[in-house]
Amino acid sequence: MTITPNVNIHAEGSCQIDVGRTRILCTASVSDRLPLFRRRTGLGWVTAEYAMLPRATQDRNRRDGRGGTLSGRTAEIQRLVGRALRTCVDFATLGEYQITVDCDVLQADGGTRCAAICGGWVALAMAARHMNGIGLVRRNPIIDQVAAVSCGIAGNDTLLDMDYEEDSNTDVDANFVMTAAGQIIEIQCSAEGVAFAKDQFDGMFSLARKGIEQLLESQQAALAMPSEHPAE
Amino acid sequence: MTITPNVNIHAEGSCQIDVGRTRILCTASVSDRLPLFRRRTGLGWVTAEYAMLPRATQDRNRRDGRGGTLSGRTAEIQRLVGRALRTCVDFATLGEYQITVDCDVLQADGGTRCAAICGGWVALAMAARHMNGIGLVRRNPIIDQVAAVSCGIAGNDTLLDMDYEEDSNTDVDANFVMTAAGQIIEIQCSAEGVAFAKDQFDGMFSLARKGIEQLLESQQAALAMPSEHPAE
Amino acid sequence: MTITPNVNIHAEGSCQIDVGRTRILCTASVSDRLPLFRRRTGLGWVTAEYAMLPRATQDRNRRDGRGGTLSGRTAEIQRLVGRALRTCVDFATLGEYQITVDCDVLQADGGTRCAAICGGWVALAMAARHMNGIGLVRRNPIIDQVAAVSCGIAGNDTLLDMDYEEDSNTDVDANFVMTAAGQIIEIQCSAEGVAFAKDQFDGMFSLARKGIEQLLESQQAALAMPSEHPAE
Amino acid sequence: MTITPNVNIHAEGSCQIDVGRTRILCTASVSDRLPLFRRRTGLGWVTAEYAMLPRATQDRNRRDGRGGTLSGRTAEIQRLVGRALRTCVDFATLGEYQITVDCDVLQADGGTRCAAICGGWVALAMAARHMNGIGLVRRNPIIDQVAAVSCGIAGNDTLLDMDYEEDSNTDVDANFVMTAAGQIIEIQCSAEGVAFAKDQFDGMFSLARKGIEQLLESQQAALAMPSEHPAE
Amino acid sequence: MTITPNVNIHAEGSCQIDVGRTRILCTASVSDRLPLFRRRTGLGWVTAEYAMLPRATQDRNRRDGRGGTLSGRTAEIQRLVGRALRTCVDFATLGEYQITVDCDVLQADGGTRCAAICGGWVALAMAARHMNGIGLVRRNPIIDQVAAVSCGIAGNDTLLDMDYEEDSNTDVDANFVMTAAGQIIEIQCSAEGVAFAKDQFDGMFSLARKGIEQLLESQQAALAMPSEHPAE
Amino acid sequence: MTITPNVNIHAEGSCQIDVGRTRILCTASVSDRLPLFRRRTGLGWVTAEYAMLPRATQDRNRRDGRGGTLSGRTAEIQRLVGRALRTCVDFATLGEYQITVDCDVLQADGGTRCAAICGGWVALAMAARHMNGIGLVRRNPIIDQVAAVSCGIAGNDTLLDMDYEEDSNTDVDANFVMTAAGQIIEIQCSAEGVAFAKDQFDGMFSLARKGIEQLLESQQAALAMPSEHPAE
């Protein structure tokens, strides 16, 4: 896994994340336009959008949303990414700003929702640091770190970070989102045809925890690189 | 919880499910029009749609989908219901038919996605039995039974089947979908602001398992009632 | 015909109306959000929405509005319901409130537009009485009572309240909306293939008038039932 | 009222109808593409579309349909025009062809739906005659003639063919569609605020009948003009 | 070419332009509702909309925009018309008003975008003069005159103002928008299959310049006709 | 300017083009699904789609097309790119295949439509060569090379390849698309407020021709790099 920060000259925070052959461009954009339900509350908001370029996949797909409807899959993923990232932010410290994290999949080979959370957090943390650096907020509103990893069960094997081909052959497909302290933010776990037992779930959980520790380190390494944002 | 079967004269299977003050009308409709990817495969399909009446909720909501976009929440729930129900069906036995399960929330007070799965399974099982009764399929294509229950953590308490007000005050919100044999079909578990530990997850899991056993019995009781479908 | 009031815990007024095998859930929702053309006029507004559940009909229909377009039939019916209900309301007394009457057809077997007007009026009257009860308006803004009935001509027979099968065989299809005093609010009358004479129209009118008298009584009976709305 | 035939070089039938200051361009287009429900039935179909140019009205309106939704009013009117015109056609004689009648309001000053029916019938009859002339059908499929007129009640007066200003001041607004023999095709009659009595309805009916006789003559005069369609 | 002014009783400026067998109705509508980016700037705006009636063309077309999507061709043409007309207006003199120029093609036979610019300018100039006449602006905000002409290359010939059939056989298709002083506003020039040389371009340019001079005269003649607008 | 080929593992042809700080990802996708008008003609088709990532620009933009409408600007650009690329292909040699060229702007700083044509041609040529390599076509269907460059006039200066800031200050904005032999494919040239003279146009044309020669060389250099496509 590689996280390359500062890949966009306009965004307040940005990175490209490569996990296997999956590649996602993540940007975090700061705006003072809040959604209606947050206006005049003193609190900020974080939202996420997720999209795939048409040829991110083996066969070309129609651009999602052209024609008016967002696929259920896209809607579900961007809601997950938004929820995961919001747990890391102190909205009172953020104040009346919205940060929009865009995760655009340039190339997909399995695990895009987890990679979007990992890269999205880096972009978000960079944007938050930048806001602090230029004085928009008094202190950094980031209060936790999150990463996400996918697991699966194929026959008797428990697998981590499956690529597209492995993923297609699993009986169970799971995503774990956790914090730096190993606490759980979100679990999504779904049998593909064959139900599974609690023991098997616990096996995936242990494996996921180890995988997440490595991801947390990569995120910190990316954040530690010198920032080139022109405004700082 | 109450499940009232045969509430619609047109549908091949139907029931009304009341869980607390949540009330959902579930119908299962049989059709020989398959989605494109299933045509000429010899296999059938099950799909679900979920919708709320505008005043199912405390404040009136806009009808979802009018204006062209389905909310992310609706898309996510109907995908979950469809996945859960598909695990119970042998598609080769079903043959080239599609069963569409519609779950329309007449009144909402928490837990609608779990109630939709429980009621949806009853409607689906009735439609499958009806197809068998009139000879559309050689034997009943239902191969398993599923039920779903919601759990939550509020402070130190683990709660089952929360109504809307309890749900609003939980720190963790989880949905468990399981089979008659206690195997897992799907877990969705999400922290609202505060992350949680594996122990707490295990506590919810045990509670959910007990809740699901009662639901499975109610489903069987509803199915055992005399069927009034005109076609049988 | 049966009208069951108080079928929804959230709505300011609600009833379920069963006419033959047609069943409609009607709710009336009070809001202080007025349409643009009524803002700052001192006058209120009443609007109606009409929808069919997908399996309300013999064959399953696509959910109307998903995909962005409302069918012409739906648009026409909800405009009719709204117009009919607005004639019963003194908008100056109502003040700057909007009441939205939702008519959701749970099961259809002919005559849904007339049943929607009859049930919609009961829900509207309950909501208006409730507003008066809790002091939102100084007196009840309902100034008239309306009911609606469908008639048809099949060969030499004039029929009242046709079910779906009778309706499919009529040469003329008519809807009459009238007040408690027997005055006309709206007439819609349409030949299906064969034109008809003024005498035949007059025959339908007489029949309709008798049918409407019974409907007015059922509406009053439903309104006289003890109200269970929690806010009163 | 003036009807000018042959105002479009492409359409199989066309006319411009001027009623007062209302001006509508009507074209009838022949196609061998039938709607799904008519294919391989040996029967044809007639459908109508109605639209207003943005500045047909006193204030400029948004183009109807841009943005995806057809207004309820437009949907209602084009359904009415289609129904009225279909009563005049023998679909077995028409064979597997569809005639689409487009009624585009260039300038509106009241009564557009009635003018659209009157002009639409002329365009339809021209297209049918043209089909017969070039041998697409063995004989003319037009079996009746229809015209439509609007009436209103303002205080104690019954009015015919109101312009926009008169129309705005009526208490009752009615449209009558009748055949050459004086039979009724459709009645739409609606109180604006104040209900009305059967006597008043009968007064409007008599007035409408007289108005329609004049319209039928104008339609025949337009049809009798020499046709300039290049294909004949 | 003929330009007939004052063809609409409601619009502040209007004309019908006939170029060959192409016929377009142009109206200019004045409004004090500005687009967001112009509000409170002291500056006005001019925008254009372009549409074809369904049977403006040899075969009937679907109404553009019904169903939610504007075709690329329509979007491109109305942007061009808007840009061309905006170059003629002093927005500070216009003040906070928007003029919307609607160009509706009643009948098409080639060259509609150029005809829309020519007729649109006349409607715009009439509306601007009208605003001045009734005192909405202190002086006429029109500061220049524009006309547009189409050219093409077919084999060795350079053609002006091609009709639809000629246009279908050209190798190069060009549109020139110019001012009264012969300066260039816009050039669109596109090879259909075979690329072309700079010399050929220069030939088209000379021809276009001559064509535009005649158009400018016709526009002035139309503007010089007595205005019948009721408000003056 | 840099063109990096082979940036996507799935696409039959792909490159990333960097012009100044503008960065576009271009992929070419081969499919045997032709648009309706090309089916069973023996001829292929080339189409293009263009989109900007939301934070490609200085301020974040809404995703184009979500909500159902494509902006006019996007529609116009992707039509231009498609037209330009189609002039380079012999459709009889291509046979019944469609190549879709997607141009996704990762970062924008002026000149995106010209960069999309330059990069799009490289992706297209790679896909065509790949089709030839694996035997889908008997010989390479690419028959010409195109490049595009933007020019502008700012005061007395004629500028090539303006970045966003320069572009905002020009009086005239032009795009030239030319072939390897210096022939013209397309000219788009538009005054922003002030009209311009033919001499000035000729100055831009000469400058553009020089710029295009360099672009043609860069395209050839990218094509000459070793191809890494797995299928070859």
Determine the structural class of chain A based on helices, strands and strand pairing.
alpha+beta
Identify the strand order in the major beta sheet of chain A: 1-2-3-5-4
Count up the helices of chain A.
Answer: 5
- Average pLDDT across residues of chain A? 92
The greatest inter-chain interface is formed by: A-B, 32 and 32 residues
- Largest β-sheet summary of chain A: 5 strands, mixed
Shape descriptor of chain A reads globular
Strand content of chain A: 25-35%
| Uncertain stretches of chain A | none
Radius of gyration of chain A: 18 Å
Which bin fits the share of residues in helices of chain A? 25-40%
List keywords for this structure.
globular; 5 helices; 232 residues; alpha+beta; homohexamer
Question: What does the model show?
Answer:
Chain A has 232 residues and is α+β, with helices and mostly antiparallel strands. In chain A, 31% of the residues lie in helices and 29% in strands. Chain A has 5 helices and 9 strands; from the N terminus they run ββββααβαββαββα. In chain A, β8 and β9 (184-191) form a beta hairpin. In chain A, α1 (72-86) packs across α3 and α3 runs parallel beside α5. The A-B interface holds A 68-73, 75-76, 78-79, 83, 87, 144, 178-179, 181, 183-191, 193, 195-198, 201, 205 and B 68-73, 75-76, 78-79, 83, 87, 144, 178-179, 181, 183-191, 193, 195-198, 201, 205.
